[in-house]
Write a structure and sequence with these properties.
By secondary structure, the chain is mostly helical. The chain folds into two domains: 146 residues, 434 Repressor (Amino-terminal Domain); 192 residues, no CATH class. 56% of the residues lie in helices and 6% in strands. Strands 1-3-2-4 form a four-stranded mixed β-sheet, with helices on both faces. Strand 2 and strand 3 form a beta hairpin. It is elongated, with a radius of gyration of 30 Å.
Length: 364
C-alpha cells in the first residue's frame, strides 16, 4: 500500500539563518565579527540570516569552527528548510492537478488496499504520484501513450477494456513484483519449476499463491496476483522487469481452477517463447495474434499432453462422465477441472456439464 503523505505544513518555516542569528546573539557576536572569523563577506552572512542563500557544506564547516556548532547541524537545518520549500512548490503544482483526480478510481484503489484513505485531496494526489512512480499525472499519461503500455492499449481498444484501469492494474503488478526477490532468470530452471507448479494443480494448497511465487522465484520469474479494477477485463500479462527478471501477472478474474491454471501457463508460454521487449496482455475476447496463439498452444499442451488427450477422446467420447474425467486427470497428474475446461472449450461437452469437478479459487 502507498502510504498517506501529510500536507499539514506550518504556515511559516524559518530558514537556518534564524538559528544562526540566535547563535550570534547568545555569544554576543555581530555578523561583521562572524564574517571576519569565517573569512566570508558580511553580505554573505547577512543573506544567510535572511534566508536568501543556502548554507553550503564549506560554509557549514566554517561556522562549526567559528561558533562551535557542528557542521552536520547546519546542513540538517538547511536540508529540512530546502525540502520544505520544495514541498511548498509541489503543493502549488498539485493544486493544478485536482481536476485530474476524477479520472482515477481512487475509491476502488483504496478498497483494494492500493492507497490509504484520506480526506486531503493533495495527499491523495501525492499518493497517486508515488503509486504511478511519476512526478505528475501528465508524465504518467505521456508514459502510457509512448512506452510499453501503448501496446496493451492497442490490443484492448477494440474490446471495451478501460485503458486507464488496465494501466493501473499493470502498474500494481510492477510494484508487487519489485518486492519479490528472484534468482536471475534461467530458461532451463523455469522449465523445470513449471513441472512443480503443474503438480500443484492436482491438490491445490490453501496457500497456493505463495507456493507458486516461491517456486517460480527460484527461476527468476515473479508471479503476482492482482485483482482487476472495474472495466479492466484482463486475465493475465507477461513482461520483463530488467533483463533477468520476468513477471507473470494474473487477475484471477475467473473463479475456477481451470481458468487460473490455463492463464498461468499461457503467460509462462510468453516468457519462454517470446521477446523480452514485448508486453503481452490477455484481454477478454481479445484478437488472437501469432504470439497469443502460440501461448495458448503451449498452455494446452503442457497441461494436457496432446497424445494422451487424443487417446482419451478416442476411447471415452462422446460420453464423458465425472468418473472418466477424474480417472484421466489422475493419470496425467492434473486437476480434473482442467480437463473439464478443455473438453468444454473444444466443444466435446456443453459448458454446463461437469462443472462440479472444477475447484473454486478465491480471488486475491
Amino acid at each position: 500500500m502507498v502510504k498517506e503523505f501529510p500536507y499539514l505544513m506550518p504556515d511559516v518555516v524559518f530558514p537556518p539563518g534564524e538559528t544562526l542569528l540566535e547563535s550570534l546573539e547568545c555569544k554576543g557576536m555581530t555578523q561583521v565579527e562572524l564574517a571576519k572569523r569565517t573569512g566570508v563577506t558580511t553580505k554573505h552572512i547577512s543573506e544567510i540570516v535572511k534566508g536568501k542563500i543556502a548554507i553550503s557544506p564549506n560554509t557549514a564547516l566554517k561556522l562549526e569552527s567559528a561558533l562551535g556548532v557542528p557542521a552536520s547541524m547546519w546542513m540538517a537545518l538547511e536540508q529540512q528548510y530546502q525540502e520544505h520549500l520544495a514541498r511548498q512548490r509541489e503543493y502549488e503544482q498539485l493544486k493544478t492537478q485536482k481536476k485530474l483526480l476524477k479520472r482515477y478510481p481512487i475509491k476502488e484503489m483504496i478498497q483494494l488496499g492500493w492507497l490509504e484513505a484520506t480526506e486531503d485531496e493533495y495527499a491523495s494526489l501525492k499518493q497517486l504520484h508515488v503509486f504511478l512512480g511519476t512526478a505528475s499525472l501528465e508524465l504518467w499519461d505521456a508514459m502510457c501513450s509512448r512506452q510499453v503500455y501503448s501496446t496493451a492499449f492497442r490490443q484492448s481498444s477494440s474490446f471495451g477494456a478501460d485503458q486507464n484501469a488496465l494501466a493501473l492494474w499493470l502498474r500494481k503488478g510492477e510494484i508487487d513484483a519489485y518486492s519479490i526477490e528472484c534468482q536471475p532468470y534461467s530458461e532451463s530452471s523455469f522449465r523445470a519449476v513449471l513441472a512443480e507448479v503443474r503438480n500443484l494443480t492436482a491438490h491445490l494448497p490453501e496457500d497456493f499463491v505463495s507456493c507458486v511465487q516461491n517456486i517460480c522465484a527460484k527461476a527468476g520469474v515473479a508471479v503476482v496476483f492482482v485483482p482487476e479494477l472495474k472495466g479492466c477485463r484482463v486475465s493475465g500479462a507477461a513482461r520483463w522487469q530488467g533483463s533477468s527478471k520476468a513477471i507473470i501477472q494474473l487477475s484471477a478474474r475467473y473463479k475456477t481452477d481451470d481458468h487460473l491454471w490455463f492463464s498461468f501457463f499461457h503467460e509462462a508460454g510468453h516468457v519462454l517463447l517470446h521477446s523480452k521487449k514485448t508486453l503481452h496482455v490477455e484481454i477478454e475476447r481479445n484478437a488472437k495474434t501469432k504470439d497469443e496463439r502460440e501461448a495458448d498452444k503451449f498452455a494446452s499442451d503442457y497441461l494436457i499432453p496432446p497424445t494422451a488427450y487424443s487417446e482419451f477422446i478416442r476411447e471415452t467420447g462422446p460420453h464423458f462422465s465425472a468418473d472418466s474425467v477424474t480417472a484421466f486427470a489422475a493419470k496425467i497428474g492434473i486437476a480434473p477441472g482442467i480437463v473439464v475446461g478443455r473438453l468444454q472449450h473444444d466443444c466435446y461437452i456443453p459448458y454446463a456439464n461437469l462443472n462440479g469437478l472444477k475447484e473454486k479459487v478465491a480471488r486475491t
